[in-house]
């Protein structure tokens, strides 16, 4: 069929544009009367054309479009024809394109007079191919202006032209799975996966179920699970195979409690690894009394493999004390030998090259509580503090640093505050290692007359509580009965202060023993200072 259009207004001869319904000058109605709407003529794709005299006739529509023309109502796709019009059983067929489902076209673009028409009964009809694409728009009914041009249809419109506001044509079975934009809340139907809308999903929520295909499998049985994604397996290099997150090392934070002694070591906030190490243990003396041991070592960061050096030293010293004390060795002598054993263990880590520089190195401080005596030994700048349970008594530092600052103070060249404020303050003058100078282990023995707590720590802690009074203020009052908690508090204090270094601390409670009965074996060894409030001096 052909379709004629006017080139000028019949009333005032004003030139008309394609698709005008009314004259822009006089308002003359150019559309056919409602009665003529029943004899609809299908439209065919109209390419954009410049304003020109009307073509005598439009090209005949394709066979597929002509076949649909016999069934299309006056209002276009999905709009039933008015009463008295000729329509085929396929009237009310949904419009082609991405909005082929009538319920998926919420925007109404059509003649308002057609919206109120009653829907007609219809049957599903196979959709003939090929279909017009959105790039080739068609305009049903009388000529009308396309307000959107010839590009992609606007969101909400089913296609270029009128939508289906009330026809609700049945979807074509050839269209495949139905696309639902109104679920839930629309009419009853099935979801794309075949589960009825509103019915219980027998498989539950996908987010609560097992990971989907392609997700990283969980850690293998017996392996470590990533602390970041909690799904990937941690490889032998310490990284997650799924997300690549570096895992905390085993030594980044270590805690241990043996009832009478507790220790905590933490990497801190600035270092990439923990180069400190500790060892705590308990054994029995020949007389049946208990002996408690705490060893703390700090690896020298400027040396090679400092973490291995500190671990080797702590382990060797602890083993030496556990071997010597049950045999009845004097605690001070046992401590001296333990430091020498620790030095030998660190020396063994050095490369087998004569004169090798930058050999592994560390510092060491240890405490032994046995038989009413407190024995301290150290090399380097790791420290031991005495904090009485009665906080009215004076706390004291029990060690003296092997450092540049301590030498300046001992020589009277600088005050303590000035020396430790210098950038060279922490340059140590004594350490354990193959390249160390003549090793001179420091040992001291005390016999306190009242109970208290011994704090054995590295400079990662005492940098934030340098004086004995500051250390006593940070240490909880119940440290004697809660040593692990107290060690955690001290480490937390250092972390709150900045955590610039590794932090390791051991808390060793000291309880005074009752006087021995006459005839009981007296403890061997030199007499210790009766009061721990006096500054400890090394005995070498």
List the helices and strands and how they pair.
Blueprint: H1 63-69, H2 112-115, E1 253-257, E2 262-266, E3 276-284, E4 290-299, H3 306-324, H4 331-347, E5 361-370, E6 373-379, E7 383-388, E8 396-397, H5 404-410, H6 416-421, E9 432-433, E10 442-446, E11 452-457, H7 459-462, H8 468-474, H9 483-497, E12 503-510
Antiparallel strand pairs: 1-2, 2-12, 3-4, 4-5, 5-6, 5-9, 6-10, 7-8, 7-11, 11-12
Helix pairs in contact: 3-4
Report on this model:
This protein is α+β, with helices and mostly antiparallel strands. The chain has helices at about 65-70, 110-115, 305-325, 330-345, 405-410, 415-420, 460, 470-475, 485-495, and strands spanning about 255, 260-265, 275-285, 290-300, 360-370, 375-380, 385-390, 395, 430-435, 440-445, 450-455, 505-510. It has a six-stranded antiparallel sheet with strand order 1-2-12-11-7-8. A hairpin with a 5-residue loop joins strand 3 and strand 4. The radius of gyration is 46 Å and the shape is elongated. The protein starts with about 60 loop residues before the first helix and ends in a 30-residue tail after the last strand.
Low-confidence stretches: 35-39, 64-119, 132-171, 178-220, 518-540
Q: First CA to last CA: what distance?
A: 119 Å
How do the SSEs run, as a string of H and E? HHEEEEHHEEEEHHEEEHHHE
Largest sheet: 6 strands, antiparallel
Multimeric status of the protein: single chain
What is the radius of gyration? 46 Å
State the secondary-structure class.
alpha+beta
Name the average pLDDT: 73
Q: What's the β-strand tally?
A: 12
What is the count of DSSP helices, taking H or I runs of 4+ residues? 9
Strand content: 5-15%
Biggest sheet, strands in spatial order? 1-2-12-11-7-8
* Helix share bin: 10-25%
What characteristic shape results from the CA principal axes? elongated
